[in-house]
Amino acid sequence: MKRKNLIAAAIFACIGISANAQDVKVEEPKGKAIVQTFGNFNVNFGANNNRGFDLERTYLGYEYKLDNGLSIKSVMDIGKSGDVSDMQRIAYIKNAMLSWKKGNMTLNGGLISTTQFNFQEKFWGYRYIMKSFQDQYKFGSSADLGMSVAYKFANWISADAIVVNGEGYKKIQKDNGLNYGLGVTLTPVKGFQVRLYSGLNTSAEEGKEDIINMAAFAGYKNDKFTVGAEYNYMMNASYKSGMNQYGYSLFASMKVAKDTELYARFDDLYSNDEWNIAKDEQAAIVGAQFKLGKNVKLAPNFRMAMPKAEGSDNTYAAYVNFYFGL
Length: 326
What we know:
Distance between the termini: 60 Å
Strand content: over 45%
Order of helices and strands: HEEEEEHHEEEEEEEEEEE
Number of strands: 16
Oligomer: single chain
Largest sheet: 16 strands, antiparallel, barrel
Number of helices: 3
Strand order of the largest sheet: 1-2-3-4-5-6-7-8-9-10-11-12-13-14-15-16
Shape: globular
Number of domains: 1
CATH superfamily: Porin
CATH architecture: Beta Barrel
CATH class: Mainly Beta
Structural class: mainly beta
């Protein structure tokens, strides 16, 4: 009898242990790998009849969430460089940063993402196909060494400030100048957002002027479609007095099926007194995006560039962009 009681007790003990094991919550991994690759196949029409496959950029990195709202992130950018032949690729450290989030405030320090056009880039949503306007036409850098702070005052308003070297992430600090930026984001109604930004990139070299950047953006997004418009102004480009650039970008996208979207965009870049006429242009892109899986995208598109220089011909190209990542 005693033996039977012992066996029964052992069985109930095992059942209890099994039940308790099922109640134990397994912690989610705090870290995640960052792997993103952008590439394309393109065919250019007209005088430049180049065609072929292109590997534009790969991001490799890791992000880890610590305790008390702290997190660290390190990302390597492997891409093209104008200093070497097109067959070679150069690796840069894109991010090496520490973030701290407490309540409605977020602090970032190190080699951080800048705030000049980060919001517009995310709203556009097709970075692997084409950079957002300011990045495309080099109004600023997407990352730099410094600090930033953001605070959400209410559901409809937030603000951010940033101080960085002003050299970008591909160059080290060369002088004593700094780049200061202040942005405000408004959400008056659900889905509709307005972004205002002003930046001052100071020059420490005699004979060079400070660069002033100003940008205004408005966009609306819901589950079916997205529309956005931005206007950008840069005074004293390349630290040269009186060399100003202006431009606007209009874009829209529409979800036509579960994994299919259509998109279109039009850019217009111009300069005062036509000092940059060789690069001033209007550009348009129209295409579709297909999600082949959770982390794979394919995007055929057609592009047209219309240079403003007298005697320059329009250029046309067909692309199939692809993206895969984690």
